[in-house]
Amino acid sequence: MSATKVGEPAPPLDLPDLSGTRHRLADLRGRAMLIVFFRHAG
Amino acid sequence: MKVLQRRERIDTLGSVLFVAFDERERLERALLRGLDVAYPVLVDRDRSAYRSWGLGRGSIAGVWGDPRVWLLYTRKLLGGERLRRPGRDTLQLGGDFVLDPQGIVTYARPQQRDDRPPVAELLRALERAARTAD
Q1: Residues B63-110 pLDDT 10s
Q2: CA of A23, closest CA in chain B: separation in Å?
Q3: CA within 20 to 30 Å of B63's CA: A37, A39, B78, B94, which one?
Q4: Does A19 touch chain B (CB under 8 A)?
């Protein structure tokens, strides 16, 4: 496991949302994107 | 979810994806809290994306030894909340990343403990990333 680094292509992201719809990062190119990974929800 | 308070600005610059790994009920109770989240909340139950993005696990001392964590839970208790059993992995760390329109990482801040960058810092990073499209 290596850290994601500035200047590199983003690793793939292909996950369902809370309603089950899949989202692929590759399909969302064309706009700047903030990605927030949460630690546990408490 | 303070970032949601800056939605208008975010929408002029780009978009947001949230990624979490807890089960839906816990996310809705502890994180979403009935908020109208305008952006997708992706669920990574096996944390494979966390691993592929290089997000590791903290130490017990690093995560639970931080006085701010205890302050947070104290505030919850004083606010009348009942503490519940912790989620699946309280040591899993998160992180914040910004990508430019070509999908290149322009900002990376993996957590080292239970810390998050200020929203203003994230917005500045998003502004810089959006400018690369010009």
Answers
A1: 667 777 677 667 777 777 766 665 567 788 999 999 999 999 999 999
A2: 8
A3: B78
A4: no
pTM of the model: 0.81
Chain A residues in contact with B88 by the CB 8 A cut-off are: 40
- CA nearest neighbour of A29 among B14, B38, B131: B14
Model ipTM value: 0.93
Instruction: State how far the Cα of B80 lies from the Cα of B100, in Å rounded to an integer.
Output: 42
| Cβ pair A32:B89 closer than 8 A | no
pLDDT (tens digit per residue) in A6-42: 999 999 999 999 889 999 999 988 999 999 998 876 5
CB atoms closer than 10 angstroms to residue B2: 9
